[in-house]
Amino acid sequence: MNEKTREEVERWIMGDENGSEMLKRVCSVRPFILPPPLHRVPLRVGNVLELVGPSPSAKTQILIQTAITCILPKHWNGIHYGGFDHLVLFIDLDSRFDIMRFSQLLIHRIHEPYGEAAGDYDKSLYDLCMTRFLYVRCSDSFQFLQTLKTLNWRLDKEKEVHGVSVHLLMIDSIGTFHWMDRASMFLSLKENNRKKLFLQSVSEAVVQDIKKLLQVHPMLVIATKSVIFWNKHSSASIEVKGSFMKNNWEERSLRNVTRNYQHFQYREYMPSVWQSFVTHRILIRSSDDHSATSNCQNSSFFLLEWLLPKLSFSDTIVVKDAGVFVDS
Hints:
P-loop_NTPase; ATP binding; three-stranded antiparallel sheet; XRCC2; alpha/beta; DNA repair protein XRCC2 homolog; Rossmann fold; 16 strands; nine-stranded mixed sheet; 11 helices
């Protein structure tokens, strides 16, 4: 923690304010109005938004599109881009991030205000935005925890270099290491004093580290989570990461089912400490019926539904080469 940040924290700890002053301060922190398709509910720093859906369901594409809005400036050379003008930290846990796709969508957004007749894109703006996108890849839970514990120092350094702070912390995908950690619970240990890697303890450490980080670096957290849907009326087995869970196991786990969309269900597998940490949740699933009646070629359709808070309607989103759009 640098000297300036330490002084700000000390003033916050020692400070005192009445109700009117507190209300004025809280109201001055404007909520996030994220770009479509995440525009339905305003979010604030400290919120944790979880995007839940099968793989693939455009979750990473939505992260990329939102990240580009964050790193773009509001105005550049007299052109309005409507960006947040801040940094983004993207933690890749499943090693599926496509930097070429990110670059393609960023160039499209830079080109967009000029129309189709525009020539070369503004390379200086492109370079600025790319330096504002901070990328970290982790291969297991230990690396993920090590990364979280060093982020405070890194974010301070990045703020000094760029002059702006990190606005969004993105985690793709939070459940990636769950099954590896689950398997480690049953492995015998050598004769030493090391603790077993229990699912609950890992999740508790992750949540505590993120909470500590948000106290010093207020950010909005957006995490994706892959799930598998199954038909509750079907007698078929459920395949998860190469293992088959038979119907007798399914019947015992129905109490853990957190969502029932018509005749489809998914089982919540993340520990309760993470579930209670999430403040907002979106469910995304494929929309094959809509795809069959659409004339759009080379496009994929999905249904996006807010579960937390619960909204009475859902959006149909379409994934094209130019990005993710709400289908009107």
